């Protein structure tokens, strides 16, 4: 499977049956940022020039069909807090955002951590989740679905989900201080490298299924930010000068 090298975004197939829905994960192409942020860097805290990032955001959001002022974003802290957004804006301290308001788009920023998008086809609620190893360990996916149930009456059986491109198991090597938080289902020991390897995609996939989302209603990206670094940013591979990607989801107002 290949990603078109000049695309600004990948649009998950799992959501294409819902024409009123906009959902996407950005790629690294089509922006104005010079090396080392080449080129569609969307992260204001990455060290890139602000004017470049704002232009990149304009290009990305306009390409999807909405404006930067239509999105709710948060400064993420690798925790398990979930924001219920009723209007767009910039927030702080949340790693998941949910809404059921048409015209309000929710998104998270990633560079290796696992992005998850959820759509409730019954209530039209949506969620964007940033799940690093800490958020995964703290069950942020499960807590997001619980929040959707509490506020929107969500039944997971009606939900569709996308686990986006992140660092894959083959590249996510960690020491015991991280690996100890995960069961053997989601990690393996490599005796040659003397490291553990953790599978964040599988760990979050299991949370979605345990919450009640049918397996056939979940799409998992086959790509890896490290292995497919030509299309995706990777903090693990590129270091502090890595750009940032967005995953976003929301309902059009002109349904």
UniProtKB/TrEMBL annotation:
NCBIfam families: peptidoglycan editing factor PgeF (TIGR00726). Belongs to the purine nucleoside phosphorylase YfiH/LACC1 family. This is Purine nucleoside phosphorylase. It catalyses: adenosine + H2O + H(+) = inosine + NH4(+); adenosine + phosphate = alpha-D-ribose 1-phosphate + adenine; S-methyl-5'-thioadenosine + phosphate = 5-(methylsulfanyl)-alpha-D-ribose 1-phosphate + adenine; inosine + phosphate = alpha-D-ribose 1-phosphate + hypoxanthine. One of its GO terms (molecular function) is hydrolase activity. Keywords: Hydrolase, Metal-binding, Transferase, Zinc. It comes from the Bacteria. Pfam families: Cu-oxidase_4. The gene is pgeF. It comes from Xanthocytophaga agilis.
């Amino acid at each position: 499977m290949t990603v078109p090298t000049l695309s600004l975004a990948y649009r998950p197939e799992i959501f294409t049956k819902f024409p009123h829905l906009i959902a996407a994960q950005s790629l690294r192409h089509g922006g104005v940022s010079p090396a080392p942020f080449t080129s569609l860097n969307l992260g204001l805290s990455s060290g890139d020039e602000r004017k470049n990032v704002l232009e990149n955001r304009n290009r990305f959001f306009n390409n999807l069909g909405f404006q930067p002022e239509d999105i709710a974003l948060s400064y993420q802290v690798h925790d398990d807090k979930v924001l219920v957004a009723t209007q767009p804006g910039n927030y702080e301290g949340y790693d998941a955002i949910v809404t059921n308001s048409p015209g309000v788009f929710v998104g998270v920023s990633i560079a290796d951590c696992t992005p998850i998008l959820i759509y409730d086809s019954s209530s039209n609620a949506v969620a964007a989740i940033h799940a690093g190893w800490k958020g995964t360990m703290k069950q942020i996916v499960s807590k997001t679905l619980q929040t959707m149930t509490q506020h929107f009456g969500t039944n997971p059986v009606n939900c569709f989900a996308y686990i986006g491109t992140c660092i894959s198991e083959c590249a996510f090597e960690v020491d015991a201080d991280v690996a100890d938080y995960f069961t053997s289902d989601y990690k393996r020991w490599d005796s040659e490298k003397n490291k553990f390897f953790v599978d964040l995609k599988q760990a979050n996939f299991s949370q979605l299924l345990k919450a009640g989302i049918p397996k056939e209603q979940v799409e998992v990206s086959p790509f890896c930010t490290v292995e497919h670094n030509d299309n995706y940013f990777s903090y693990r591979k590129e270091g502090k000068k890595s750009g940032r990607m967005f995953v976003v989801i929301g309902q059009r107002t002109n349904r």
